[in-house]
Structures are given as C-alpha cells and as structure tokens.
Amino acid sequence: RIILCDLTYVQQTIASDVIPAAIGNIASFTKNELTESLDFNLFKYPDTLTRHLESLQPNSSPHIVGFSNYCWNSKLSLAFSKVIKKFFPKTIIVFGGPNLPIYVEEQENFLAKNPVIDFYIAKEGEIGFSILTRALIQSDFDKSSITNDIPNLLFIDNEGQFQKNEIQIRMQLESVPSPYTEGFLDPFFDGKLLPIIQSNRGCPFKCTFCTEGMKYWVKIYKYSQDKINDELK
After folding, report:
1. What is the CA radius of gyration of the chain?
2. Distance CA 152, CA 119 (A)
3. Residues near 191 by Cβ (< 8 Å), separated by ≥ 6?
4. Tally: H helices and E strands in the chain
5. Alpha-carbon torsion 101, 105, 166, 32, what sign?
6. Taking the model in full, what pTM does it have?
7. Nearest one of 218, 224, 193 to 205, comparing CA atoms
8. What is the pLDDT of residue 66?
9. At a CB cut-off of 8 Å and minimum separation 6, what does 68 contact?
10. Which of 3, 23, 53 has the alpha carbon at shortest distance from 179?
11. pLDDT < 50 positions in the chain
C-alpha cells in the first residue's frame, strides 16, 4: 500500500493548481517495473488525504508514503509526515523533489533536523523510488536493511551516519509509462486543477536561480511525440 502526495495549500486559493503529474510518473513507472501487487493512492488536497488516513484501520496502514518536496509545500508535507508517523509508526516516509540543499553538509543537516524523513530521493525520482520500493518489499519493510547502493538516495542510518549514493541516474523517458493513459491522474480532473504535460527534461543552461542549472540536468531527454499525442487525446 503506497500513498504518493503532491500537497498544496487551499485556504484562500489553490496555491499549486496543476495536476500532480510528477507523482503520477513515479506511480506508473514503479508499477510497470515491479512484479509485486502495488496499491497506489495519489493525493493533492490536504483534506482528501486527511479523510483517507482517518478511514484506515491499524491493519491497513500504508507501507510507504511519499511526498513531493517543493518550497511551497515543504512544511505542509513535513506536518503530515509527523502525524502519519504518530499513528502509523511503521510506515516508511520518502521525500523527493528540488527543495533540497546542494551541498552534502547541508543535506545531512536537513535530514538530521527532519528525522521523520526515512529516505530522500534527489533529482529524478522514478528509478530511485522503484528500486527502494523493491528493496523494502524484499526486506519486509525493514528500513535498516537499506544500504547506500540505491541511486539518487540519501538517508541517515540507524547508527546516525549520513548515507548518500553519489551515482545519480538520468531517466530514459521512453521507459516511463504515461500516468494519464494509465489512469493514475483521472481523479484530478475536477475542474479546478490544470493538466500539465511534460515534453522533455533537462536544460543546457546553467542559471544559478534555477533548480535545473546543475550539471546533472545539462543533457536534454525528450518524450516521443506519439506519447505526447496520446496524452493530449
């Protein structure tokens, strides 16, 4: 049982009003890669996530809850993570997204200050999340069994040591099934959220104000035109 969240504030307006295609990509890729039966639930609105969590019984708690971590929802995601850990202490919390310091020392400090985060996947999340999920399933969700050989993964181990895999893999985008055509994003066509389609990843420029200004993102990978057409249709 896996929950993926790309939360937004909704008090006065919907702060981030786009369909959560990024977590949809992670769900569609992970389900395609793993042979195990995976039950995904995706959430955008805090109240919808709250109602879902309140409906769960102790024997139906989520095995993994993942949060997209942007500057506009980081505190909201951390607040939900603390509540989830309180009521479902065995649930594994995974964060991912660009709101992560660049330098190793600052990354370690970020995880040390937020111990509710069990694992953080830097840069692109599909490969790292799918491999981490497989490893957790094989170990019966014993997070102490996870080592630092998973690409793009950061975490603090049981001994309090910061672990980081320096191998950061770029995605070959043709291997990511469309979350639109796979149906993962159907619930978000509510007349409020805006559909978003990603045609490529990467940027050759090195603008320091941008999260894609690092060397990791220099090479541009494109989705096929057929896939884009299918999503539009």
Report:
1. 17
2. 10
3. none
4. 6, 9
5. negative
6. 0.94
7. 218
8. 98
9. 4, 5, 6, 7, 20, 22, 23, 77, 96, 97
10. 23
11. none
